[in-house]
């Protein structure tokens, strides 16, 4: 025996299913569109007239996001698939380093600013000692061509966050500091009246 349902009830069920399917399809389409736009924006990121080779990348050596560094820190720069050349030297597939401190990226089709937040290493340096105030900071590397303009596509590192601390010292520096303190105490003792009295008693 067939159970008949009112036409109005059947239509509402059908319409409800169509509506749910439409919302699911629309949401999926929006997600795909957003991902495509994000990827396209990264692919189209361009700099100045100097091209960079495929696979070129710049990165920090020994520094990690969220790490702690001394207020006077030595920052070392790593580079892949490109060479380092001083500013003003027109050499293919090369550039020189710039360190961005506590600042956003500058316009990528213009010369990188030269100030306390944009440090230039136009002599071709691959490391530098920087002085940071105690507290949180952001660091980012950006390669520039002979005219200090980023390449196309730009060669830049992810921005990392570090904490600068006066108390941060390496084990080698800590050991050297302990040794110096011991030597100073030894010198003070050997020049003291107690040591001279002890020496006289030994000689008698």
Description:
- The protein has helices at 7-43, 171-190, 193-203; strands spanning 57-61, 68-70, 72-80, 83-84, 94-101, 118-120, 127-131, 135-144, 160-165.
- The protein is an alpha+beta fold and 204 residues long.
- It folds into 3 domains: 1-44; 57-165, Immunoglobulins (Immunoglobulin-like, Sandwich), CATH 2.60.40.10; 171-203.
- The longest helix has 37 residues, at 7-43.
- It starts with 6 loop residues before the first helix and ends with a helix.
- The relative contact order is 0.16.
Which key terms come to mind for this protein?
six-stranded mixed beta sheet, alpha+beta, Immunoglobulin-like, 204 residues, 3 domains, elongated, three-stranded antiparallel beta sheet
Beta-strand segment tally: 9
Q: Gyration radius, to the nearest Å? A: 32 Å
Strand content: 25-35%
Structural class: alpha+beta
Distance from first to last alpha carbon: 129 Å
Give the low-pLDDT segments: 29-43
Major sheet details: 6 strands, mixed
Task: Name the average pLDDT.
Answer: 79
The number of domains: 3
The number of helical runs is 3
CATH architecture of the largest domain: Sandwich
What overall form do the CA principal axes indicate?
elongated
CATH class of the largest domain: Mainly Beta
Classify the fold: give the CATH topology of the largest domain: Immunoglobulin-like
Topology readout:
Elements: H1 7-43, E1 57-61, E2 68-70, E3 72-80, E4 83-84, E5 94-101, E6 118-120, E7 127-131, E8 135-144, E9 160-165, H2 171-190, H3 193-203
Parallel strand pairs: 2-9, 4-5
Antiparallel strand pairs: 1-3, 3-7, 5-6, 5-8, 8-9
């Amino acid at each position: 025996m067939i159970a008949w349902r009112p036409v109005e009830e059947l239509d509402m069920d059908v319409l409800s299913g169509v509506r749910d399917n439409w919302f699911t399809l629309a949401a999926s389409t929006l997600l795909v569109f957003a991902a495509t736009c994000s990827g396209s924006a990264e692919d189209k990121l361009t700099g100045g007239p100097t091209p960079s080779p495929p696979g070129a990348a710049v990165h920090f050596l020994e520094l990690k996001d969220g790490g702690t560094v001394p207020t006077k820190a030595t920052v070392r720069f790593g580079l892949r698939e490109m060479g380092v050349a001083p500013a003003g030297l027109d050499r293919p597939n090369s550039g020189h380093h710039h360190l961005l401190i506590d600042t956003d990226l500058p316009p990528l089709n213009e010369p990188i600013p030269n100030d306390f937040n944009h440090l230039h290493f136009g002599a071709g340096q691959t490391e530098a000692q920087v002085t940071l105030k105690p507290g949180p900071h952001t660091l980012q590397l950006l390669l520039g061509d002979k005219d200090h303009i980023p390449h196309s596509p730009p060669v830049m590192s992810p921005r990392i966050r570090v904490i600068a601390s006066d108390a941060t010292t390496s084990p080698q520096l800590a050991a050297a500091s302990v040794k110096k303190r011991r030597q100073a105490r030894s010198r003070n003792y050997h020049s003291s009246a107690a040591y001279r009295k002890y020496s006289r008693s030994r000689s008698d």
